[in-house]
């Protein structure tokens, strides 16, 4: 038995602080908090409206979870099948154990094509493996073509949301960066550019069009890889995906092994679940499906890289593997009260929000500060589970991962406190003795308000503490029912 | 059976052997809540017992990552409560732990006997509003509370137990009450047990927004089905000297003209 | 053994050991067309669509328009004129037509605009100079306001409907289905026979800047859907 290794943390995120520290910094950024509040509440309302239009959303969720579970439970078989059908359709299939291997395959293909640039469709998998950085090092420019990714790239920034990566930037900031940076990479922004979103989109259209028309190689991910037909699916809005998937001669798609769907029919539920959960639309503007090479139409050399990078490690956990159902819709981010206030950067990964809080510690293990803190970055309010289109029980996974973190030690005081509490609480006599301490304090404090207790600063810095009562319920009951006889 | 839009209990359920699970937090910190449950249920003709051996559901250990330490508590819980027909608790969170987490803990303990006992006890454990509306079939409990009140549906009641509008049905039937809607009611208050301490900054940011919404309503009283969430929001309201009181649902439902809360 | 082969073997071994606890049989062997949940959903969608055709068409028109495409309903015989009208109001001068476009529509367009044929449009750069494209379509989906192109000869290569800024798309009313699963089922073809598919729901759009929806980034910014009555 050889369980796959965890993913190596990519250079960008090595040494990230624990979530609470990063969150504190994010909370102080009032502009970002306002942007996030507006954005998450807007998408929440849109999602709720289009979900309500569906007759039996719950049945769809079950069908979606079912299709993904089928693929994951028999992943070996379906991977072999998808490889076979893709190959039959004229695609070239590669396998990559980790980020370095996947990046090397892409670079080798780009070099064989003698290009110094590639155009890219927004892809979480290529962000995860930091492909752009690897290409840059190899002297190959990677142009992000999704508007938000372009914004992030021009800022030299990191995405903060799966779906709307520039959610933390407002229109004025975007105009300024277009005026400042576009000229360095190609067609400059028009001098009279305003911060009207339509004008900004137009500037991006013109800037990128020359790149689309020129590019020889494109890199994409895939939302789904259909095993029985050998079809890849990319779901998008702007048409940049279609440009990349259609115009260049060579297409390289980096596909996580968990993206496999068993059959073509599984697209039925998936194409209802994903757009409604993601952008809150009945359907996204554009979806492209291609099955290898299509004679005389689109790229005539099609590569597919099947990427592990920690996924097989997650798959080995019988509870944790449900996280691999994730279709990257970001509904959980948009409903999460924690994400809404901290934004994505505090999660120290390309996968932020509730799904990031369970996926990162599973993909990367819990040895780093940030990964060990992520399972606690939730109030367990359950809004994410309710919103998840493939029924990932994120609160359950968070609790399980807390167990993993607690088990690895290093929390001696907490562990001792929990053991002591369990010892007290497993016996009513011990509990009664312990309660005497509280009621004694209650008698001493009387009606005064508790605003500060040494060692409880995390609570009392902003919250008063409840005053303990002079008598517990148990003492009252005993007094009423046993000393005082039957009522 | 329908009276003023609400249901009143037709028959006192003397056939049921009902236990009160006070929960360890309420027992120790907020005894007025379980006392109110006793008063309320007795008023409705239910004889409620308080098994003195009861302790804790183990949620704190489980949610902090020490589910193993919760095993003896789960064992103790089923031992104490298995002989009752119904167990009532004034806490959505603790009932949620019994329903959602106890099976997982029994599984973790690798004890099929415990697992089957858990399966037997689990469906008999009710959060207060569920017990009143579903078991007793009552929404008008004959309460009197002439104050402006807003209700916060705590996350575990809302999304684990799915109590729906049961608490609101009960509150709407209270005589004299001025019940006002809480904006953003379904959003978490930020308590989250261990979260309130481990991520105190985010927790307080969430609680502050919740407190602002509460203040917007102009309510005198914030009511909820969980004292832990109320302690968090109330702690912030108190620090802000807002003058808004927090009360458990049970205490409002127990309040009468003769014995007002 | 090439490095790639060993990566393949290693990943498959990891995956198989990770799922060693699974005892069920994979569906790929046992599955029949009617046995799975998605197909049941599809069947339900199909049965619901039957007898509700006018409602389905209305819903389709409503949802296409809701995503800010222009919608025109005409009898089959008037499609050519409607196409010309749509192109005129979009203010275009040059139009590319796919090889298999309906003869009468092609003639109507040819009489009014500069036409570039699919065969003559050999590069994307060339298409970038063309204002509009006129195509047929494969399937329409009412609940989502979606048109699916399967790039048969009446729709042309994918780049034809991507690079020009205006797309006039004709769909026959018997091509409109009620819901997504039915479309998926109908679009399934035999293994090895797959066509590329483009699902289009309204014109290209982005909400990346402060979540304000802007129509038109890279794909056609004007989309006109002409629903043709059955002849």
From TrEMBL, chain A:
Residues 323-392 form the 4Fe-4S ferredoxin-type domain. Keywords: 4Fe-4S, Electron transport, Iron, Iron-sulfur, Metal-binding, Repeat, Transport. One of its GO terms (molecular function) is metal ion binding. Residues 79-307 form the LUD domain. GO terms for biological process: lactate metabolic process. Residues 406-480 form the Lactate utilization protein B C-terminal domain. SUPFAM superfamilies: 4Fe-4S ferredoxins (SSF54862), NagB/RpiA/CoA transferase-like (SSF100950). PANTHER family: LACTATE UTILIZATION PROTEIN B (PTHR47153:SF2). This is (4Fe-4S) cluster-containing protein. It comes from Knoellia sinensis KCTC 19936. The lineage of its organism: Bacteria, Bacillati, Actinomycetota, Actinomycetes, Micrococcales.
């Amino acid at each position: 038995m050889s369980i796959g290794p965890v993913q190596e943390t990519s250079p960008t995120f090595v040494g990230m602080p624990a979530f609470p520290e990063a969150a504190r910094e994010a909370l102080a950024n009032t502009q970002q908090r306002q942007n996030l509040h507006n954005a998450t509440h807007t998408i929440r309302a849109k999602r709720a409206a289009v979900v309500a239009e569906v007759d039996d959303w719950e049945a769809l969720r079950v069908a979606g979870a079912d299709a993904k579970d089928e693929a994951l439970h028999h992943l070996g078989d379906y991977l072999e099948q998808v490889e076979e059908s893709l190959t039959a359709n004229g695609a070239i299939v590669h396998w990559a154990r980790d980020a370095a291997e996947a990046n090397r395959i892409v670079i080798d293909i780009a070099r064989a094509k003698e290009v110094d640039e590639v155009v890219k469709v927004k892809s979480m998998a290529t962000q995860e493996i930091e492909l752009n950085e690897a290409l840059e090092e190899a002297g190959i420019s990677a142009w992000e073509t999704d508007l938000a990714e372009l914004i992030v790239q021009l800022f030299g920034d990191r995405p903060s949301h799966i779906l709307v990566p520039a959610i933390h930037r407002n229109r004025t900031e975007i105009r300024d960066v277009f005026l400042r940076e576009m000229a360095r990479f190609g067609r400059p922004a028009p001098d009279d550019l305003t911060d009207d979103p339509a004008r900004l989109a137009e500037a991006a259209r013109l800037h990128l069009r020359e790149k689309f028309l020129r590019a020889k190689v494109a890199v994409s991910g895939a939302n789904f890889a259909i095993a029985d037909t050998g079809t890849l699916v990319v779901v998008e809005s702007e048409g940049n995906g279609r440009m990349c998937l259609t115009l260049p001669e060579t297409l390289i798609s980096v596909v996580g092994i968990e993206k496999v769907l068993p059959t073509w029919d599984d697209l039925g539920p998936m194409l209802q679940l994903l757009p409604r959960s993601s952008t809150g639309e009945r359907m996204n503007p554009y979806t492209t499906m291609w099955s290898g090479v299509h004679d005389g139409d689109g790229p005539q050399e099609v590569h597919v890289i099947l990427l592990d990078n920690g996924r097989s490690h997650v798959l080995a956990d019988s509870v944790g593997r449900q996280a691999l159902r994730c279709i990257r819709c970001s509904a959980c981010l948009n409903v999460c009260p924690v994400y809404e206030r901290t934004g994505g950067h505090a999660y120290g990964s390309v996968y932020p929000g509730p799904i990031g809080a369970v996926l990162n510690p599973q993909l990367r293990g819990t040895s780093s500060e940030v990964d060990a803190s992520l399972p606690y970055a939730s109030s367990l309010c359950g809004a994410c589970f309710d919103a998840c289109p493939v029924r990932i029980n994120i609160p359950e996974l968070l609790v399980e991962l807390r167990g993993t973190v607690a088990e690895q030690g290093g929390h001696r005081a907490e562990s001792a406190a929990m053991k002591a509490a369990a010892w007290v609480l497993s016996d009513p006599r011990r509990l009664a003795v312990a309660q005497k301490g509280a009621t004694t304090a209650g008698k001493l404090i009387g009606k005064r308000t508790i605003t500060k207790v040494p060692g409880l600063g995390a609570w009392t810095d902003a919250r008063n503490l409840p005053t303990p009562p002079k008598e517990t319920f148990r003492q009252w009951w005993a007094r009423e029912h046993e000393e005082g006889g039957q009522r | 059976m329908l009276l003023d839009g609400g249901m009143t209990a037709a028959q006192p359920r003397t056939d049921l052997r009902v236990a009160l699970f006070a929960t360890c937090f309420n027992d120790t910190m907020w005894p007025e809540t379980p006392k109110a449950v006793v008063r309320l249920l007795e008023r409705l003709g239910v004889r409620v017992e308080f098994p003195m051996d009861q302790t804790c559901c183990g949620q704190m250990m489980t949610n902090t990552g020490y589910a193993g330490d919760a095993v003896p508590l789960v064992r103790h819980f089923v031992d104490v409560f298995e002989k009752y027909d119904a167990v009532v608790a004034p806490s959505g969170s603790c009932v949620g732990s019994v329903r959602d987490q106890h099976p997982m803990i029994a599984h973790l303990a690798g004890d099929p006997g415990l697992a089957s006992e858990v399966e037997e006890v689990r469906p008999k454990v009710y959060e207060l509003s569920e017990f009143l509306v579903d078991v007793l079939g009552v929404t008008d409990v004959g309460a009197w509370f002439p104050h402006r009140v807003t209700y916060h549906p705590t996350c575990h009641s809302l999304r684990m137990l799915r109590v729906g509008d049961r608490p609101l049905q009960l509150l709407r039937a209270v005589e004299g009450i001025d019940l006002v809607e809480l904006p953003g009611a379904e959003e978490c208050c930020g308590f989250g047990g261990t979260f309130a301490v481990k991520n105190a900054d985010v927790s307080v940011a969430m609680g502050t927004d919740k407190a602002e919404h509460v203040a917007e309503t102009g309510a005198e009283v914030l009511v909820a089905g969980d004292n832990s969430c109320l302690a968090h929001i109330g702690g912030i309201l108190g620090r802000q000297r807002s003058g808004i009181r927090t009360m458990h649902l049970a205490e409002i439902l127990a309040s009468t003209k003769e014995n007002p809360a | 053994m090439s490095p790639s082969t060993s990566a393949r073997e290693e990943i498959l071994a990891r995956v198989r050991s990770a799922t060693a606890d699974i005892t069920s049989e994979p569906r790929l062997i046992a599955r029949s067309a009617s046995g799975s949940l998605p197909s049941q959903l599809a069947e339900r969608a199909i049965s619901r669509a039957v007898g509700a055709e006018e409602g389905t068409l209305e819903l389709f028109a409503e949802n296409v328009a809701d995503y800010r495409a222009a919608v025109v309903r005409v009898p089959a015989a008037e499609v050519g004129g409607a196409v010309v009208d749509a192109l005129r109001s979009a203010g275009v001068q040059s139009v590319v037509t796919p090889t298999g476009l309906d003869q009468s529509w092609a003639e109507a367009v040819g009489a009014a605009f500069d036409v570039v044929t699919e065969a003559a449009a050999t590069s994307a750069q060339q298409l970038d100079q063309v204002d509009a494209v006129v195509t047929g379509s494969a399937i329409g989906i009412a609940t989502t306001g979606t048109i699916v192109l399967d790039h048969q000869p009446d729709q042309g290569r994918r780049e034809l409907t991507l690079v020009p800024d205006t797309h006039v798309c004709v769909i026959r009313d018997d091509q409109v289905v009620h819901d997504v699963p039915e479309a998926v089922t109908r679009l399934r073809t035999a293994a090895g026979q797959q066509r590329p598919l483009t699902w289009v729901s309204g014109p290209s759009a982005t909400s990346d800047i402060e979540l304000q929806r802007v129509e038109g980034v890279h794909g056609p910014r004007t989309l006109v859907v002409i629903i043709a009555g059955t002849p």
